């Protein structure tokens, strides 16, 4: 009989915690949620104050029996599920299911799985925070109502098996809207003029860019304007009119939140959101390190706070002083976004002494990559700014103004360890300008006019979509990864070379939803609801009242839409492929594995064909058509149409026309 029973979500977490506690403590895992709404029906009693009808999750019967048995024999039961709303809800469901008196049950949370944190949490138990539970219930119930009421509209009008969701549908809308922006984009011509100039004293060249006339900015849109300027400066002398010297500081980025970690892992190490969260979960729950055993290497990975504990700050200081020296250390505090749920810290390593290189051999490749990213980002956040010497030069050529900017890295500071990535195209860094004097002449070596065209906005990547969702207040740290995973799996969007674009199915579903459920499938509503969930978590709002206020108008909208769409038929997109059985032009349909061609004469004609993508480069071996196919991991490969009959050509790389 155990004095203490500790229930966590996962076996990995249970194994890590066991080693920190005495022999009379038993640690077991609930394997995530043990109760949820039923899958086969709405599961919410709309007539009875929106009471959720929770049931035990299928397949967990034996586990539940074991948990009940362990709880009955323990003197005290500690519910140590994750320190967020989802974890609080799991703890609450466990407390309702264990069939023991409430006085035996208590809640403990820790932001990191270290001996100190776990032992401190056990000494300071608390009651389950019902406000956090209610915030989670409100999200679950609202999303269930939206999904279960809107999805059947899609089944009737598009095809069965589709789903709509409050957050996922808005994410699809952002991607569809961006695609329309790209398609409707009209490029505009613009020109730049670059002058390559020589300083005769140092014999060094540098580049200056045309700015305007007599220091007034002038934009160039036509070749005629450029030719006029080139004619007027053909024999001009280039005189240095003004030199400004200065110093520029670049500060480090704060420690990771969930979304910034997902964005950087996507940019820097090519991880999908799903992979990032999976690897982070392993690092949080525990990895075996020789001499230390199984330990948690990072703090809790679902957070939108950048706050750091004083203990962590102190360990970072010691590490930076010992490794880099005093000139590199700065005690920094970061402001947390006002919308953030500041319950726990930003994401950081739990042991400053465990540098990534020291434990590299005990981590998988993926664990090492992500741990290094988290470790370096955190340490850099407590380091001095990088310092640049800057120089700005204004040059006159027959009353036309050219400007040159230069910068030279004087002190690397935090950049010794870490530089934040970006989704935007990197501007070329300013070059180094030689030591010049005002009123001196510099010699023109070359003038280069360059024509360019404005570019459309880029397609979203997983990283930039997360950034957009966060900026617009849509979803929360725990929802970004499942949202994007869902819309990829539903084939509403597709991903190619990191870029996300809508499928034809995604466009059809998006059009139907935004035309008929304008009040729900929009950014403002989704962001407003997130704020209401936050108010419920703070005890400022009643969750059932919130659902009630939403449900009445929503139910009326659904009924109205169903009536209006009753006699509306969404026409299938017609292809240019003729049915080889009856001669009709085949149409595009959507099945479990994506688009295919089908005869519109169904059921008289049941002809169907896969859509074969080809390229305009012949097979390098036999000259036949090369088809594009996808492997199980969704990666494209190229194969001869005669493979395997008379040609064995197959390659991951696209063949080229020229040899």
Percent of residues in β-strands: 15-25%
Helix content: 25-40%
Strand order within the widest beta sheet? 9-10-16-15-12-17
Major sheet characteristics: 6 strands, antiparallel, barrel
Apparent shape: globular
Q: Class by helix and strand content?
A: alpha+beta
Ends apart, CA distance between termini: 76 Å
Number of helices: 17
Mean pLDDT across all amino acids? 91
Which radius of gyration do the C-alpha atoms yield? 31 Å
DSSP summary, beta strand count = 27
Low-confidence stretches: none
Structure characterization notes:
With 659 residues, the protein is an alpha+beta fold. 33% of the residues are buried. The mean pLDDT is 91.
Topology:
Blueprint: E1 4-8, H1 11-18, E2 25-29, E3 35-36, E4 44-45, E5 51-52, E6 55-56, H2 61-73, E7 76-79, H3 85-97, E8 105-107, H4 115-123, H5 130-157, H6 166-184, E9 189-199, E10 204-213, E11 216-217, H7 223-232, E12 238-250, H8 258-269, H9 273-285, E13 287-289, E14 293-295, H10 310-323, H11 356-359, H12 365-380, E15 386-397, E16 400-411, E17 441-453, H13 462-471, H14 477-489, E18 493-496, E19 499-502, H15 504-516, H16 523-537, H17 543-565, E20 574-578, E21 585-591, E22 594-598, E23 608-610, E24 613-614, E25 626-630, E26 636-640, E27 650-651
Parallel strand pairs: 1-2, 1-7, 7-8
Antiparallel strand pairs: 3-6, 4-5, 9-10, 9-17, 10-11, 10-16, 12-15, 12-17, 13-14, 15-16, 18-19, 20-21, 21-22, 22-23, 24-25, 25-26, 26-27
Helix pairs in contact: 3-5, 5-16, 5-17, 6-14, 6-15, 8-12, 8-13, 9-12
